[in-house]
């Protein structure tokens, strides 16, 4: 009953920041974006072979999906994949809240199907997981995954879907050098053993691991990420210096190495892209080779920073 096997990219393209208003300092990321600029980003990404775009209806409350849909109109639908999410926290009171939210996402994105549809937060796994089944049967959703779920919730969702001939094909959790809860909880091992693709979001910790920001050059004032990360930047210098050092030895930059670390750990990183040159970083990251010693030293430096980057929306894994 399940559809054809899901295409599994090395790196997915994140558009959380596309939900900001476009005004610097206004919104979660404080990014200054224009449609023309994002079209240039998309053209470069597609030319480089990156075709899976990840968004969610709560990113800017529909803005990210809408902007992404407009940008992708320049391509044939078969040339890219769309990943978006149902969020139980904003579900309505109708008999079919997930189907209704999906319809809104389809309209925002200007498409008639979603390649990979997620339950964004666990809320009530027994309640919400069955709602995925009619969407899969309808063809409006090709593949499904769960995001921000712990191991027992992942297994329960898989059991519920399995009874209808489907399965959890992907897990999307926060995973970075600074936040390895899914690894410590056994989720990565479970995904590996079950053939489930693990997508890692916030790999660059919203810019804090790019080496671009430091106490003298903090994240954009007025943005939500500035409130969270600016106080941590001084503690990250040892880690970002090591990322930069490894990068220099491989003609790469600091964020490239942080992304390469996530790939080396067996995950598909979702990297937010708002500027064309970010695509060059993804290309470099895809070709970096990290030794076991590199990985161990990076993780030791990350642990030594003693920061907690778990999002307010995230449960302990």
If you had to describe this structure to a student in words, what would you say it looks like?
The chain is an alpha/beta fold and 317 residues long. The chain has helices at 35-47, 63-72, 97-109, 125-128, 132-138, 151-162, 181-184, 187-194, 224-229, 237-249, 254-264, 276-287, 292-305, and strands spanning 12-14, 52-54, 81-86, 114-119, 141-147, 170-174, 197-201, 268-272. Strands 1-2-3-4-5-6-7-8 form an eight-stranded parallel beta barrel, surrounded by four helices. Strand 5 (141-147), helix 6 and strand 6 form a beta-alpha-beta unit. Helix 1 (35-47) packs across helix 2 (63-72), helix 2 (63-72) crosses helix 3 (97-109) and helix 10 (237-249) packs antiparallel against helix 13. One of its GO terms (cellular component) is cytosol. This is Protein IolS. InterPro entries: AKR, AKR_Detox_Biosynth, NAD(P)_OxRdtase_dom_sf, NADP_OxRdtase_dom.
- Counting structural domains, the number is 1
**Beta-strand proportion:** 5-15%
Overall morphology: globular
Rg result: 19 Å
Number of strands: 8
In short:
With 317 residues, this protein is α/β, with parallel strands linked by helices. 40% of the residues lie in helices and 13% in strands.
């Amino acid at each position: 009953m399940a559809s054809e096997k899901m295409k599994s990219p090395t790196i997915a393209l994140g558009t959380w920041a596309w939900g900001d208003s476009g005004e610097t300092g206004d919104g979660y990321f404080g990014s200054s974006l224009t449609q023309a600029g994002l079209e240039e980003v998309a053209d470069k990404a597609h030319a480089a072979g990156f075709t899976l775009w990840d968004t969610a209806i709560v990113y800017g409350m529909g803005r990210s999906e809408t902007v992404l849909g407009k940008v992708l109109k320049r391509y044939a639908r078969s040339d890219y994949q769309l990943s978006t999410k149902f969020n139980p926290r904003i579900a309505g009171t109708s008999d079919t809240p997930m189907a209704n939210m999906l319809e809104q996402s389809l309209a925002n994105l200007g498409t008639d199907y979603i390649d990979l549809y997620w339950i964004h937060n666990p809320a009530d796994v027994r309640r919400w997981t069955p709602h995925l089944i009619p969407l899969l049967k309808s063809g409006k959703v090709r593949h499904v995954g769960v995001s921000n779920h712990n191991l027992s919730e992942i297994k329960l969702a898989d059991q519920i879907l399995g009874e209808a001939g489907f399965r959890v094909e992907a897990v999307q959790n926060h995973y970075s050098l600074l936040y390895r809860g899914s690894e410590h909880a056994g989720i990565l091992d479970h995904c590996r053993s079950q053939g489930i693709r693990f997508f890692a979001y916030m790999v660059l910790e919203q810019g804090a691991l790019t080496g671009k920001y430091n106490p003298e050059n903090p994240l954009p004032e007025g943005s939500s990420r500035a409130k969270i990360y600016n106080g941590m930047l001084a503690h990250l210098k040892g880690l970002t210096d090591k990322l930069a050092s490894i990068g220099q030895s491989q003609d790469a930059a600091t964020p490239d190495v942080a992304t390469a670390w996530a790939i080396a750990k067996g995950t598909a990183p979702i990297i937010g892209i708002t500027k064309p040159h970010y695509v060059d970083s993804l290309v470099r990251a895809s070709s970096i080779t990290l030794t076991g010693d590199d990985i161990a030293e990076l993780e030791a430096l990350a642990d030594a920073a003693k920061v907690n980057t778990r999002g307010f929306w995230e449960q302990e894994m």
